[in-house]
Amino acid sequence: MIRQPPAPHAPTLTPRRSPATIVAPAASVTVSSAAARVASAAAASPSLAPASSPARVASAAAASPSRVAAPAPARVAAPVPAPARYRGAGLVLILVAAFMVVLDFSIVNVALPSIQRELGFAASAVQWVVTGYAITFGGLLILGGRAADLFGRRRMFVAGLIIFSAASLAGGLAQDPVLLVISRAVQGMGAALVAPAALSLITTGFPEGPERNRALGFYGATSSIGFVAGQVLGGVLVQFTTWRAVFLVNVPVGVAAALLAPRLLGRSHEERARRRLDVGGAALITGAIAAVVFAVSQGGAAGWTSPTVLGALAAAVAAIAAFAAVERRHPDPLVRGDVLRLPCLRKGGALILLLGVWNGGEMLVLSLYFQQVLHDSPLMTGLAIAPQGIVGFSAGALGARLAARMGMRWLLVLTNGLAMFGFLVLTQLPAAGGYSPVLVAVIFVGFGTAGTAFGAMVTASRGVADDDQGLVGGVINTSRQIGAGIGAALLPAIALTVSHGTGTGTAGVGGARAAMLAGAVAAGLATLVAWRSQGDDKKSTATTGRQS
Question: Could you give the CA distance from residue 448 to residue 402 in angstroms, rounded to a whole number?
Fold first, then answer.
């Protein structure tokens, strides 16, 4: 890190600003407080920006030429403290929006049997109501975060809320399966703008330290509560109104949040460099995800060696290869290769991907099992699954303490092992009767899921420079949503394949048990990944020491 001398006196600028950091391709130059004031003023007055940035980067290159790999535009970060009102009502608004996005991912699970009956979905296709949302949400998360950096966080936050609300209205009024799936896909697009913008509004609106940690703690707790509330609220709405209410409930909340955002959040003042938005890369990776999930969902019905499935897998491989080629040549790629090569990010990404597989598929299979095998009401289905989310909330709250006592590696081994144990117990699901003691095993799955999510985020971000933390967050969130999309297609496909030949057209208890075994396999693989992470922990600790 190279310290620059103070910049010339700037009498008209605000004196209290956070230090600005100018990042060259492979060098990071910390500027003094006077230079930081110039960078902050550039954010408010763009005409000041071009004159200062190139000179400072050139100075850094001259001082340490070995650290500069190739010329590229500098990125200037000048955080602006949030106004007082932002830290109260504004935070509540952000949390409400985050709650709505998470709620919508789980609230639909309980409504699936009702949707299947009324709209005439085939048993092998009804999961696309969930998968369509997961594909666009997961595929566009990184692009949504980059758009927030380029065009303004509040602007993308409001745009995402409007898109999400409009798609919710269309889904609630849909009269055929195709329109409903399209509406869900558009909902995912809106959520992909809201989620990263909401998180970045918190991280840039609160100073680093206890205040930001507290705000992020509320953000994480809101996600856990939203997941539980989605299961219960979905059951209440479906049982006492109609399945359409699970979509229409988003409309007034989203519209109100979009109208209040300009008043409560204020205008963002971050400087946005002139960079190209990597739309092509986002389209390719989203197409690859869609092809993989389509192949998995059709494998049970059409056969895993059918031309349709093999063609979809070939298209996915081609899209991934094209994505890699585009990213290597793009001046501002969606995902930088040097960041993806970090051992801890790979480890954290693998853990969160496997978590998404078991979590996304398990919720869908259990919702169908309770209603189609045990013939429970939607409300009872939500209440039966709710303990998993409640225990998961406790695991998230205790994660930091447990990690301090036993170390991150052993915490991840414990949480993934508990999830695997819970799934193995669930392979003994009863074929009939009321609530069985076997179903208590969902609390082990819930604790393991939340604890693994916490540990994977800490592992992935460890030893990474501050300027790359946003990309790390995008990669981790995308990995989880990709996993959820695959799980929502894979586990129901396994259940339907095992139950094939029963003549009911739905997955029976044998299929549900097989799907739980698949979840146990995913959790077991995650346990092995966590067990082998000791070397990477040492590497990341050394990297952190060098950076400090």
Answer: 13
Query: Amino acid identity, residue 139?
Result: G
CATH for 344-548 (1.10.260.40, 1.20.1250.20, 3.90.580.10, 1.10.3300.10):
1.20.1250.20
Would you state the pLDDT for residue 56? 41
**Cα–Cα distance for residue pair 154/319, rounded to 1 Å:** 32
C-alpha separations of 341 from 45, 242, 299, 318, 427 in Å: 37, 48, 32, 21, 37
Q: Which of 144, 150, 118, 112 is nearest to 131 (CA)?
A: 112
Question: What is the domain class of 80-272 according to CATH?
Answer: mainly alpha
pLDDT tens per residue, range 443-483? 899 888 888 887 787 777 776 665 565 567 677 777 887 78
CB-CB contact of 257 with 89 (8 Å): no
Name the residue among 288, 315, 312, 284 with its Cα closest to residue 298.
Answer: 312
pLDDT at residue 466 in the model: 53
* Inter-residue contact 458 to 540 (CB < 8 Å): no
**Long-range own/partner contacts, residues 404-408 (CB < 8 A, 24 or more apart):** 408/455, 408/458, 408/459, 408/537
- Predicted confidence band of residue 297 (pLDDT cuts 50, 70, 90): low
Write down the pTM of the prediction. Answer: 0.67
Name the residue ranges covered by the structural domains of the chain.
2-55, 80-272, 276-331, 344-548
CA angle 330, 331, 336 (to 5 degrees): 75
> What sign has the CA pseudo-torsion 379, 383, 385, 388?
positive
Q: Do domains 80-272 and 344-548 have the same CATH topology?
A: yes
User: Average per-residue pLDDT in the chain?
Assistant: 74
Contact between 67 and 39 (Cβ < 8 Å): no
Q: Which residues contact 294 (CB under 8 A, 6 or more apart)?
A: 312, 489
Q: Which amino acid is at 10?
A: A
pLDDT value at position 356?
A: 86
Kindly compute the dihedral angle of the four CA atoms of residues 471, 473, 477, 478, in this order, to the nearest 10 degrees: 10
Amino acid at 486: I
Q: How far apart are CA 520 and CA 510, in angstroms?
A: 15
Rounded CA-CA distance 470/345 in Å is: 13
